[in-house]
Amino acid sequence: MATAAFAHRVLPVHQSHEAPLRVGLIGCGGRGTGAAAQALSTAGPVELVAMADLFAERLQGSLRSLRDPEQGVHERVRVDPEHIFTGFDAAEKLIASDVDVVLLATPPHFRAQHFASAVAAGKHVFLEKPVAVDGHGVRMALAAAELARQKKLSVVCGLQRHYQNGYRATMQRIKDGAIGELTAARCAWNTGFLWHKERKADWSDMEWQVRNWLYFTWLSGDHIVEQHVHNIDVINWAKGGHPVKACGMGGRQVRTDPKFGNIFDHHAVRFEYADGMWMFSECRQIEGCQNDVSEHLVGTRGRAHMDSERWTIEGQESWTHQGPNNNPYQTEHDELFASIREGRALNDGVMVAESTLTAIMGRMATYSGREVTWQEALESPLHPSTPASYVFGPLANYPVAVPGAKA
Amino acid sequence: MLPESSVPDRRTFLTTAGAVALSATAFGQFSTRSRRDEIRVGLVGCGGRGTGAAVNALNADPAVRLVALGDWFPDRIERALAGLMEDAGPPATGPDGKPTSAAPSIAERVDVPPERRFVGQDAIDRVLACDIDIVILATSPGFRPAHMEKAVAAGKHMFVEKPVAVDTPGLIRVRKACEAAAAKQLVVVSGLCWRYDYGMRATFDAVHQGGIGTMRAMQCSYLTGSLWHHGRKPEWSEADYQIRNWLYFNWLSGDHLNEQAIHSLDKLLWARQDQPPAKVTAMGGRQVRTDPKYGHIYDHFSAVYVWPDGVKGFAWCRQMDGCKGDVSDHLFGSEGVCDVFKHTIRGAREWNYTGPSNNMYQTEWDELVAAVRAGKTINNGDYMVKSTMMAIMGRMAAYTGQEVTWQQAWESQENLFPASFADADMKVAPVAMPGITKFV
User: Under CATH, what is the fold of the domain A165-323+354-378?
Assistant: First the structure.
């Protein structure tokens, strides 16, 4: 039933005589599998030829799903056993293989390294958000984005609001002055609990943490980075830049069981842009509370409110987006693959890196209780609970942050 | 001293002829002035703020005498008295505002013999039964509704510390007491002290006159460190313990969003010309100050208040050591931004306050006593009730994780006051859990 929405997918008819673009998927969870299906639903010849995941059964589950005719992309799934890679080195092996495009959809900790390797190997990239969990990773991503620019490689990121008609139309109006000068902004991702995988007896700490990556800051960056980055990014988009500092608070009030790792369940951050404008950001993952996933801009002449389904401007020029609406997850792949075929590289690398670092700066502020500057966030090292090596074994170092504690 | 019954008409005298008579009296002749010229003040709640208010009262006018003290604990009374006697404060001033050595010092006007020092739960009643004109209500906020009702019933002018309640049933009592006080032409001055700061008044006047154009958004923050804790002594009952450490128990303080950050919320209300918000959403928690000795209050809140015209007010507070401190308010308008604490507007109409600065705590009392003398009424009830409700509804939103409307907040049935002060009725409610804790 879950695939019913895809049951009647009609693949675009090939119009060209080009060789198929060869796609490799790295990170075969729900999002990666979805991204692969979308990549395979683009115009022009395209094939999924390689897959990589830390866990063989995750990869096989994804492959079965993509081969299911109900998905509608099975004819474009050409993954032979030699192109199935598992383990901690699976991504590097896939990147070294004969693929044109890689889809990077592992837990965020691994993304920056995969991005750097893919660009070094000359691959076009679809890059899920966030692109890193710490300043170390963001610096790597910024370098990869620059190298991709030099190599004219396309880099499209999973901040899909950038590929959604309603957001694009609203942003155009804001930039055309529909709400005047921006005076304040508010964004939120307040939602309930997410999935959790109960620990099995034979799982090492490493396996337990990677399978429950949402809950460990070194893997996900905390939900302010992993999920709320979408909303923060919209405000950066409207502002045409990133904040210069952040002050925030947060905590772990309800989701306190150790099985939920060390991330907070709520954050509230005040980001300050170079011109002094404040963005008030909130994110919460607590079940049974008032939910709100939206972005809100206050201008001198009006307000804009956006929430993925409805886009409105109130003020002297009131307006509501009337459509057409699109599936932005599909559009991001349509535009990525079109850019590759047409030889005009798209590059979202700096955008996703800056929005990711904005969220990281916010987390550093809520964890420490201190004001954190952009430079401090950018220069931050690997998150301190990052394991020394990638092996399935014991891990102990994942304390919950205590704001105000001496460093 | 005259028996209380011999001066039944003293209030009438004070509020009419008294003003003229006293202002015409040279200070050198003060000591010969009639007992009926005095303005007699009683203090209930002898902590730091109450004692400070008493000093302000004594400094407001050389005719003020502090004549009765009440507190739950005898040592607080003795400590307050010792402080008042030792620290005479600034010299008393004459009608021209200049210090006058002829005016009696503060210490000379502290006239609280042991028989007018009242300890325990009925201290309020016994202070009000004294021959006083003005009562200072400065206990923990949870007692304020009952104390205000009693003060109004006794016909006393009053200085009412903020906040004025910790829950809706209490706040409704305060609202009614304020209405009754207005009907009786009693002066009600609130301890929301920024309303008495000259720079703030000028700043809000400038904003109300269109200095920033149309209001678009507002921010206030009260981010500060942790506060005192008085520990526990074996001889204390549980009620004694909680009242000594009242900050940390909701039936007494209403949490720090109410007890402390109300100053900030009141400025948002003031900015909107005392029109209340339509609703609030909030989050918060108890992340660092988790020891049970800190009761059940949170250590941080982030609230978003929304007014009927869509204007949002982003209100934060935190009590945590080692974190960024920030006590500030900013108003963002269509034509400018007001930094409330700096008393500046930048934008189309640049403005900054150049007038005199004042001690707002003293001005509260100068205006209160002047009103009593002149027979005029000040009643700060409207905004002090609304600001307290803003704090209560913000706490409700944070504790439950739900949006709370102004209407819903006024319909809340949550009564935090204990059934009795017996240990069995003093159980500490669990720390609120958003999504689990229900709106009551």
Answer: Dihydrodipicolinate Reductase; domain 2 (3.30.360)
Contact B330, B343 (CB under 8 A): no
pLDDT tens track of chain A, all 407 residues?
333 344 445 555 555 567 899 999 999 999 999 999 999 999 989 999 999 999 999 999 999 999 999 999 999 999 999 999 999 999 999 999 999 999 999 999 999 999 999 999 999 999 999 999 999 999 999 999 999 999 999 999 999 999 999 999 999 999 999 999 999 999 999 999 999 999 999 999 999 999 999 999 999 999 999 999 999 999 999 999 999 999 999 999 999 999 999 999 999 999 999 999 999 999 999 999 999 999 999 999 999 999 999 999 998 879 999 989 999 999 999 999 999 999 999 999 999 999 999 999 999 999 999 999 999 999 999 999 999 999 999 998 789 999 999 76
The residue written with tokens 């919209």 in the block is A234
Domain residue ranges in chain A: 18-161+332-347, 165-323+354-378
Measured distance CA(B417)–CA(B164) in Å, rounded = 14
CB contact set of B365 (below 8 Å; sequence gap of 6+)? B53, B56, B57, B59, B60, B159, B189
Q: Under a CB-based contact definition with an 8 Å cutoff, are residues A17 and A45 in contact? A: no
Closest alpha carbon within chain A to B213: A300
HSE-CB for A345 with a 13 A CA cutoff: 20
Contacts with A, B 296-315, CB within 8 Å: 300, 302, 304, 310, 312, 314
Which one of A253, A270, A406 has the shortest CB-CB distance to B433? A253
The model carries a pTM of 0.92
Domains in chain B: ranges and CATH:
4-194+375-381 (3.40.50.720), 198-355+383-425 (3.30.360.10)
Q: Which CATH number fits domain A18-161+332-347: 3.40.50.720, 3.30.70.360, 3.40.50.150, 2.60.40.10?
A: 3.40.50.720
Contact B323 A403 (CB under 8 A): yes
Short-list B120, B76, B114, B145, CA closest to B237: B120
**Nearest by CB to A369, which of B284, B314, B322?**
B322
- Residues of A whose CB is below 8 A from B287: 249-253, 402-403
